[in-house]
Amino acid sequence: MQRQQVELSAELVKDRQNEHLPRVAASGRYAYLGGLVAYTPHAWLQNPEQVAVPASPHAVRVGLEADWEVYTGGRLKNQIASQVANEVLETERLTLTASDVRLRVATAYLDVQRNREYRALTANNVKESERRLVQIRSLYKNGVVLRSDLLRAELQLSQQKLLLIEIGNTLILTTQRLNILLGAPEDQAHQLAALSPPPAALGASYPDYLGQAQAQAPELRVAGLQTRLS
Fold it and tell me: What is the pTM of this model?
C-alpha cells in the first residue's frame, strides 16, 4: 500500500513537470463539394442558363494551435517543489514502514530467544528441586527435618512446574507472532542462532549511537518533511 503511494507521488511529479511544456493541438478537415452551379450576375436577364462552377470541388482545412504559459509567477515551480517533497516524504514513510517491520521481527526474535533460555533455566531448576525434594523426604522420614520443610520444598517445586508451563505457553505465542511477521506457518519451528553482537558495535559509545540514530532515523526525516510541507 505504501509502495503504491510512492509510485503515485512520482507520477504526480511528472504531471507537474509536464505543465511546463507547451500544449500543441493540430486539426484538419477535408470536404468534397459536388454538383455545385452558379449564375453569372444579371445573366438571367439575358441568358437564364446556369453556369457550372469552375473551381475545384475539394475543400481542405488544416489548423495548428499552440499554448504556452510564459510566466506564472512561480506557481508551477512551487507546485513541482511541493510535489517532489511529497514524493520524498512518501519514500521516507515506506522506509519507516520497512524499518518498523524489521524492528517487530527483531523484537519477536528476541522474545523467542529469551523465552527459550528462560525455559531451559527453569527446567534445570525443576530438576534440582526434584532432587532436593527426594533428599528432604528422606531426611523427614529419619526425623532430621520438620514437616514444614517438606511442605515448603513441595510448594517450591509446584511453583516452578507451573512457571515452566507458563513459559512454554508464552514461547508458543511468541513463536506464532514471529512466524506471522515472517509469513511462515504459525506452528513452524525455528533454529535460532546464538546472539553475538558485531565487534564494531561493541566499541561504539552512546553519543555515537545517538548521532547515528539522529542521522538515519526515518521518523526524524518524516517529521522534517512534514514541517516543510505544512
Answer: 0.53
